[in-house]
Write a structure and sequence with these properties.
Elements lengths: L15 H8 L3 H5 L9 H39 L9 E4 L3 E7 L2 E7 L2 E4 L5 E7 L3 E11 L5 E13 L4 H8 L3 H19 L3 H7 L3 E11 L2 E12 L2 H17 L3 E8 L6 H99 L2 H14 L9 H27 L1
Antiparallel strand pairs: 1-4, 2-3, 2-5, 6-7, 7-10, 8-9
């Protein structure tokens, strides 16, 4: 019987001794994936050179990947507020100051905005805002003096922590100092306020009241009636809350400054709100009636003033017309007086001229009335007479005329003699 032939060794078959050695590999090493098939002696020489060539590249890749992870974690630590205590470099934002704790003890070191260094894991850092901030306190239930439960949905408190008092405030009240002096204090003050006032005072009287009235404006198209703001009363509850908060903060936490408090209208039960709405409607109707009455009185007074103004205008116009007529009459009278004076002066001048002419003519005639001139005129008259008279009296007539001339001559001489005397 031929001895059993040995099977040729397959390159993919592992010897029994190697299988036993492989089973002895620790389970941790197997789980981590470090288990490798055994290398035959004839393959070890060739694999060693390949492993030496690829090992350098693999370690370089691992190094770069590790550095990338470290840098990413560092940036994440810088940007995370919860992990900022693990970093050396930290940032204080604008409007804040940096405060530090070491072993739970608050340090007096206060840093300004910017980048700063600290000891990681030992020193804790927290930014504290020192600019204006608004804290909103929501859902504040309270009961009025009459026992009605109401709810303030939101109260806004504008406050500021002074930079010089940051250490004292945090030392006494911690980082959440506003919980003590703003949130809890607002709840306390609102409940005290509501318990001391009625629903009417809390819901209506203590808030801004804008009273609308009616005014009339006279325009080109008539009278216009438009609503206008008659009076505005300040919100008393806002001022009371501000004074209460600031008083306690000034006494116990002087670094906290209360700038303003804004209180919204509380929410009341629907039935009571409906009653308030009806009351306001009735009050509005009464106010409208009163304002209508005032408007009617104003219209009557306006019509009266318009009538008085119209009468005064007519009287003033009549007075002006009368003055105009009087001035016209005075002007006409003065014109007539001027014309009369001109006529009188003209007539006087004419009379004086006529008198002067007659006087001169009389003087001239007086000088002319001589016997020789009279005889000449007599002869010229006889010569110019174309009639011839016949009769016994004709010579007597001529003689009589000569006698008349002689008489006149004697009279003229007497007159001259009297004039000389």
């Amino acid at each position: 019987m031929d001895p059993p032939q040995e099977r040729p060794e397959s390159p993919f078959e592992t010897p029994t001794d190697q299988r036993l050695q492989r089973s002895e590999t620790p389970p941790v090493q197997r789980l981590q994936g470090w288990e490798t098939p055994p290398v035959r002696p004839q393959q070890a020489a060739g694999g060693a050179a390949a492993a030496a060539a690829s090992g350098g590249d693999f370690s370089a890749i691992i190094t770069v990947f590790f550095l990338f992870i470290v840098i990413s974690c560092f940036v994440a630590f810088l940007s995370s507020s919860t992990l900022s205590n693990l970093t050396i470099l930290h940032q204080v934002p604008e409007g804040h100051v940096g405060v530090y704790w070491r072993g739970g003890a608050l340090l007096k070191t206060i840093t300004e905005p910017g980048f700063h260094l600290k000891m990681p894991l030992i020193t804790q850092f927290e930014p504290i805002q020192v600019t204006l901030q608004t804290d909103q306190v929501r859902d504040i239930p309270c009961g009025t003096k009459g026992g009605v439960m109401i709810n303030f949905e939101k109260i806004e408190v504008v406050n500021r922590l002074h930079k010089d008092y940051v250490y004292e405030t945090l030392l006494n009240y911690g980082v959440q100092y506003d919980n003590t002096w703003i949130y809890d204090k607002i709840h306390h003050e609102i409940n005290q306020f509501c318990s001391a006032h009625s629903l009417q005072q809390v819901y209506i009287d203590m808030f801004d009241q804008v009273l609308f009235s009616w005014m009339y404006m006279e325009g080109k198209i008539g009278f216009l009636f438009v609503p206008y703001v008659g009076a505005i009363s300040l919100c008393k509850i806002d001022e009371k809350m501000k004074d209460s908060l600031q008083g306690d903060c000034t006494r116990y936490a002087p670094g906290i400054e209360i700038i303003s408090v804004r209180v919204t209208k509380p929410t009341i039960p629907e039935v009571i709100r409906h009653n308030f709405v009806q009351m306001e409607q009735e009050r509005t109707n009464v106010l409208i009636s009163i304002e209508k009455q005032k408007v009617a009185e104003k219209e009557a007074e306006t019509r009266k003033k318009m009538a008085i103004t119209e009468a005064e205008k007519n009287a003033h116009v009549s007075k002006i017309l009368m003055q105009q007529k009087l001035m016209e009459k005075d002007s006409a009278r003065m014109q007539e007086e001027i014309e009369n004076q001109m006529y009188l002066a003209r007539e006087k001048s004419l009379a004086d001229a006529n008198f002067y002419r007659l006087t001169k003519e009389a003087e001239a005639n007086k000088l002319k009335l001589t016997p020789e001139y009279l005889e000449l005129r007599f002869i010229e008259s006889i010569a110019n007479n174309s009639k011839i008279f016949f009769g016994n009296k004709v010579p007597n007539m001529v003689f009589d005329q000569r006698l008349l001339g002689n008489f006149l001559q004697s009279v003229a001489k007497k007159v001259d003699a009297e004039a000389e005397l």
